[in-house]
Amino acid sequence: MPATAAQQQRAATLRDELHRHNRLYYTDAAPEISDREFDELLRELQDLEAEHPELLTPDSPTQRVGGAPIEGFVTVAHTVPMLSIDNTYSKEELDTWITRVGKEIGKDFPDDGGLFGGDSDQPPATQLILEPKIDGVALSLRYENGVLTQALTRGDGTKGDDITHNINTVNAIPLRLEPSPGVRASARMPIPDVLEVRGEIYMPNAVFERVNAQREQDGLELFANPRNSTAGTLKQKDPAKVIRGLAFIAHGRGVLESETTDGFDQTHDRFLASLKQLGLPTHEDFRVCETADEAWDFVAEFDEKRHTLPYATDGMVIKFNRYDVQDKLGTRSKSPRWCIAYKYAAEQAQTVLETVEWQVGKTGKLTPRATMSPVFLAGTTVTHASLHNFGEMLRKDIRVGDTVVIEKAGEIIPQVVRVVLEKRPKNTQPPTAPDRCPECGTPVQIEMDSRRVQEHEVYARKVEREKAKAEKLAAKPKHIEPPEPLGPLDETARYCPNPECPAQFRERLIHFVGRNQMDIDALGEKTIHQLADAGLLTNLGDIFQLHEKREDILALERMAEKKVDNLVQGIEDAKGRGLARVLAGLTIRHVGNSGSRVFARAFGNVDALVAADLEQLEALEDVGPITAQSLYDFLHNETGQHVIDELKQAGVDLTEEQPAVVESSGDSPFAGKKIVLTGTLEHFKRNDLKAKLETLGAKVSGSVSKNTDILIAGESAGSKLTKAESLGVEVWNEAQLLKSLPE
Length: 743
Ligand SMILES: NC(=O)c1ccc[n+]([C@@H]2O[C@H](COP(=O)([O-])OP(=O)(O)OC[C@H]3O[C@@H](n4cnc5c(N)ncnc54)[C@H](O)[C@@H]3O)[C@@H](O)[C@H]2O)c1
Ligand SMILES: [Zn+2]
Prior knowledge:
By secondary structure, the protein is an alpha+beta fold. Helices cover 36% and strands 18% of the residues. It catalyses: NAD(+) + (deoxyribonucleotide)n-3'-hydroxyl + 5'-phospho-(deoxyribonucleotide)m = (deoxyribonucleotide)n+m + AMP + beta-nicotinamide D-nucleotide.
């Protein structure tokens, strides 16, 4: 059955949301939702796509590894892709997976051990190996003749960032492979010619807590979990600034070239043992198992132990042990088929909810924040939890005075899971929410669950259709069951719509000066509050006037000459960060760091961007219509224009370097052509090809329209190809492209 309009819409919404959360998680290192919630949304989209394959788009978050390369680093293609891992939170699903894949293996390796008997010197084909899943950042290390030559991040899975210089500071990673002293000379394995090791770089709990304590003191935003702080610190351009004390554990293989392998290219456990011999840290707690029951025992056993470890683990990775089996099973676009992660349920604790306070965020969103009696949970003492929104409070009926169950899913900010009703004291009051912004008094706007709103829209359209039909036939319209009326329980957010709201302004400033935007270190959260309270910061442009207000600043508490010098210098430096980072800092809805970069590079300066029409913005690769519209609105409304003027006056650099374009010499077949790329190309990375075509004078855009001149379609091209064909656009395959490109 084809997908209904509502399902199509839902799939689109889910894709947008998941893209946004991926960006928040990987690029900005500042997730808004827990992993569990993220995984539930992803699962919903997967199920929709499975049921209606026509909903599947090549860029769907179900098909791609979530990360993206970091700006300012050299991006390098992976020799072997670095993929994500499918996960489950249920024992039943884990069992089913082991059985199902086990059967498949049985077909391919019929005489070969395991469930199906056999007698090779290899272990059974269905043998499993289990390793704890440390919550860190994936890293690929390349050793040539035993010397570390390259360290790459996972990036988008096909290409990552070269962070070798930062890795040199990590003591846990050997710069040279050397058999560990404990290994008998006779058992020493030769150093491979090339060895690529994949592993996890992570921040031990103690280091994480130290870092966050320091950040709190400095008034900087806290890292949500050790994984975010690791990702954050590895992005430093200056190795001296990389946080000390990172650790590493090896858990996978990339390229392997070696004369003698000593069996380490045959099974994962032997591979790990060899790595250990060579001086690379590997898991102590791994186990080889033969059956699903054995595997589960280890999963359960480790759940006890993991809380005593000095680093955060969030699951267990279950792999088929033999590499020939892994190779036979192969991979999907996003994850291997020979591996699954079982994720542990988050730890929970009970405590009493003392107060609820409404905070105004940088977009004007009002968020209820709970203060609770302090309770120890998953390694830290917790006093605050996010309650998300009023609808959520109503749905869970969360009242002040209640005993609540809280959890830290993925170590993010704690969440209130439910109320312990048996412990509810008498006379509690149902939750309430402010009708006006607690900061500026503007009446709030209420947002309802988009899925429910759509339900109502679909209903209204159906009713109209039936009415029209009935009129024609002069009959009574058919009755259509109306959906549940929208009510307070459907509320998903409240907003203060006042663009001048001082609370929003402060939050926007905090964002503007953040690490990935203007990066003004000396202007921390506390300083911003102080300056704003003193009336020295009332609009964005004021930041760049602060050097003229030296005396006023010095008069404030805890301000010394040195500090003011730093502040003024920091602000001066920030003027040169370029358009992409300015845009990213302006809190334009849906326009984050990566989107800003695309816009800035495509147009080169702010005036060209303002002059662009909506269609041009939408046509950019990797830009969705919602994002384009949002930027367009910002650039063309009064507030946005005002902000841009202020920045211009302050002398902020509003230009961005563009990829070089050679003047079309006329003899290039691509000169002046509008080209769209789709599908998988064998000989090119998408972005490299794009850059290449652009230097040949082509304009490469993201969506096919009647103005498109050529669609270059690789393997498994989807909807763009169909559309191009229906519009009669010229379609080239990769062979044609190769012929037409100059040497
Ligand atoms: N909260 C959010 O907004 C948000 C957004 C995006 C992703 N996420 C979360 O991130 C996860 C998806 O991220 P992902 O694609 O990086 O997957 P993942 O981190 O869950 O699993 C894949 C990674 O596990 C690591 N790993 C650790 N131990 C390993 C071992 N022993 N063997 C093999 N690999 C091991 C590898 O580095 C690999 O890259 C999901 O759990 C999702 O919930 C959350
Ligand atoms: Zn307000």
